[in-house]
Design brief:
single chain, rod-shaped, about 150 residues, three-stranded parallel sheet
């Protein structure tokens, strides 16, 4: 019985000492935290603006292609030729759209990598340990959005 009480006392003491040491060690840790408004940075990016213009131009080309295809199909009187022409244009449209989507995705990925690199660069330059999206932080943190926006322009 005495051995159990001694063991329990030692275990409780070790636990209390462990918690105290952990709290003491953690009280000295100071993290420098920054926040970034990512949507603002994306909208300010010259690469994003150029990609939007490029996509709009490609969309206009696609609309012109569809209008031309409709006219060609409507002008054809033979039912079999009409079906063959529709299939041809549908296949061509799908290929153009797939190529456009693939190109857009690859360019968007490259832009995302660039913006992430600029955020990291600004965080290191400012000596920040942690960078969070502004939308998830309720209070605190230094806003480095303007610096990142200037870097991505």
């Amino acid at each position: 019985m005495k051995n159990n009480v001694k063991f329990l006392a030692v275990a409780v003491s070790a636990f209390v000492i462990g918690i105290s040491v952990n709290n003491f060690a953690m009280s000295d840790v100071q993290s420098k935290i920054a926040v970034v408004d990512v949507p603002q940075v994306v909208n300010a990016s010259s690469q994003v603006q150029a990609l939007k213009k490029e996509q709009q131009a490609k969309a206009k080309d696609l609309v012109a292609f569809v209008e031309k295809a409709r006219k060609d199909v409507a002008a054809t009187k033979d039912v079999k030729k009409k079906q063959a022409l529709e299939e041809k244009y549908n296949k061509e449209l799908n290929n153009k759209k797939a190529a456009m989507d693939k190109n857009y995705a690859s360019k968007l990925s490259a832009i995302d990598n660039t913006i992430s690199a600029k955020i990291t660069e600004q965080a290191k330059a400012g000596g920040y340990d942690i960078v969070l999206a502004k939308g998830v932080v309720l209070y605190g943190g230094t806003d480095i959005t303007d610096a990142v926006k200037k870097a991505v322009k």
